[in-house]
Amino acid sequence: MAPSAVTAAAASRKRRREDADDVEPARTRSSEDRFRQKTLVLASRGVSYRQRHLMDDVCALLPTTKKDAKLDTKHQLWQINELADLSSCNNAIYFEARRRGELYMWLARTPNGPSARFHVQNAHTMDELKMIGNCLKGSRPIVTFDSTFDSEPHWRLLKELLTHTFAVPRTARKIKPFVDHVASFSVADGKIWFRNYQILDAPATEAIDSVAPGSKPKRTKDAPKTTLSEIGPRCVLVPVKIFEGSFNGATIFENKQFVKPAAKLTAEREAKASKYVNRKREQTDRQARLSVRDAAPADPLETLRVFA
Question: Does the 32-209+219-257 domain belong in CATH 3.30.870.10?
């Protein structure tokens, strides 16, 4: 082989090694991008304007959401898995509106599960709270959980489900390189309390210490202070059921203490009806006693007759 051919072969092998070294980091980046979190957000028919604004606030807090049109059916929820697949989403938030303004929220890990159903109480939107705080749209939130989430198995499962839904990964697209708000989840009375806070950094301040006359004054600098200011939205989530699959499957956990709002309304109506029935029964008994007294024969020795 000629020397020029040997040199050309060595140069080609060197170029192949350099190309392999350049391709390897790109392959690693693609493997990281494979684990992105994208959430599909949609609602059912019949949602009110307050519930629709709450859904919009959730979409504004999470830059990895994909908003879809309203779902026509309330019984074939497995169709949400197909919608999430078409939108390349691996999480789903579904707002289910019921009668008398009741709202339920589904959190699901599509398409294999698990999924959880919550009853939404005391929901307040950002515009309704009228708070002066603000955070950058598209920034990543710091998701914090109460220590109660590590106490029982169903709380740990809900913590994992909330983390996948509300924690924005570092490799997500459309995010800003800032962390300026905190999403807090706390457990009290068997309910999950959701709050959103803005991180405020107060600058360091300088102060001059009083010293003896004739000496040089000393300057002290305080450390910067970090405070939290609630900016909304806020709501209370009551766990109802946890399912093994996504919007279907076996029931893993069921809240025995949860009472449906329709059952509460029925009990209140039955209580009012029982008061009416008891009052009418007392009136009937009184009329019967009066009729018996009037039908009795007159006593000639009655006081009113003797001393009339």
Answer: no
